[in-house]
Structure formats: structure tokens, C-alpha cells
Amino acid sequence: MSTGKRSKTVAVWLSFALGSLGVHRFYLHGLRDPWAWLHLPPTLLGLYGVQRMDVLGQDDRLAWVLIPLLGLMLTQSMLAGIVHALTPDERWRDRHNPGQPVRKTGWGPVLGAIACLMVGGGCLMATIAFSAQRYFESQVEAAREISQ
Questions:
Q1: What is the C-alpha to C-alpha distance for residues 73 and 22, in angstroms, rounded to an integer?
Q2: Which of 30, 63, 92, 101 lies 20 to 30 Å from 49, alpha-carbon distance?
Q3: pLDDT at 92
Q4: Structural domain of residue 74, as residue ranges?
Q5: What's the predicted TM-score (pTM) here?
């Protein structure tokens, strides 16, 4: 558990901006949080997939597998931002600022939740569309190989 004062607004916006790297969890729980460190491998693998597709083109099958990892990590970080934003102020205080008075958070988390919902929804739809397109393209290619 963190000992310093943690702002809900900062946590929401960190989740929005750098959540796929686990920065919001490092902010809330410190550098020893194992869940935060688990954000890094799939995000970096997804970025590697994007780089591979940029260099090798759309026919690179490894990139097809790696890029959805990035989309899923972006989506989960947006979901975490929404959850942080919707956490009641009293519960936030009990979890992250015990023994301190309740701080009313205002519009910062609300605007962050709206941004997370818009970006997260887009990331999830794009990830599903990309994965489905690549799957069906591979099925068509396999059917062509069988018929030849």
C-alpha cells in the first residue's frame, strides 16, 4: 500500500497517457508492484509488432500476432482509467490516502473517464477489426493454396 498522498485525477490521466506501460500502477503502488511490471512485456512486444509491420510490410505473420497485444494493453489501460475515475472519493481515500480527509475531485477524473472511454472504445474496435481481418485473410490464402 502506498504511503504518500495519491490523486485520483493524476491516476486517471496517467492511465490515459501511459497506462499500457503500467505508469498509473507505479504511481499508485510503487515500483515493487508486480502487476505494473507485467504491463511492459506485452506493450513492448506490440510496439515491436508495429515496427516489424512498418519494415516488413503487411504480410509479416508475427506482426499479426504481436500488434493485437498493443491494442489490448491500450484498451485495458483505458478501462483502468475509467475504473479509477468512477471510484467514489471515500473509497479512493480509504485505499490510497488513509487517515486523510476526503478530497472532492471535481471535473478532472470525469473528463479523463470521457477521454478513456473514447480512446478505449476505438482501440478495442480497431484491435478486433485488425485481428478479424488478418484471420480471414489467412483463411482465404489457405483456401487458395489448397485449391491450387
A1: 9
A2: 30
A3: 96
A4: 8-147
A5: 0.89
